Amino acid sequence: MTRKLPFTTIENLRDFGDYAAGHRHMKKGVLFRSAHQAEASDEELEALAALGLSLIVDLRRPGERERMPSRRWKGFAAEVIANDHPEVGDDPWQTFMKTTEITADSMRAYMLTYYDAAPHEVRHIDLYTRWFRRLGETDGATLVHCAAGKDRTGILCALTHHIAGVHPDDIMADYLLTNDEERFARRMPLFAAHVEELTGRRPDEKAMRTTMGVEAAYLERALAAMVRDNGSIDGYLRDVLGVDAERRAAVERRILV
To answer: In 50-70, which positions are buried (b, 16+ CB within 10 angstroms) versus exposed (e)?
Structure first.
């Protein structure tokens, strides 16, 4: 089955529904995930509109949205979940890139630290909470995205899969679909040039692949943080994100057949 949609100016766009979920099945054409839409062509914006999106969650920080504002199609009327929580200090990723030797090992260490903290980051808690509340209350297709559509997006999609009852192996497999060789080949030179402009140093290919991709250990680190601090993933959903039995049932009705 091909989950990736044939878009090139909207990266990493795919349907993350249509999985077996215990004795039920996730709906197809309801749950989409992607990178940002700041570089979207007019043609691909029209194709995105044709998906029937009624709800979008933009997981980016305010500064990211300001630097790379989302392009919208004519007649855009979808609800957008975002927040303007004050940013303390500089963009942490840019700060890391500017101040640290960029290697595959240093990037991997940074990502593991990031995923350990991400589930309990105040801004993420707000966005994730609002996603699950509105997901159970709206009709139409939905889109989860951040900048690259892999880390913040990956955690939220994994939590959505968990609520649905998707097998952990399928949750991880979906997460790892970000590692698309075609996308790497297309975007790596552009990304390397961006890093060189930002830092004055051009990283090697191995470092860039680590930066642009994901590893199972990353998502495992985030899920382990939920278990460590909240007893279980369900405990995190209930106690941190407010996904009680009623809200969980609403999400299930929305995404399962």
So the answer is: ebebebbbbbbbeebbeeeeb
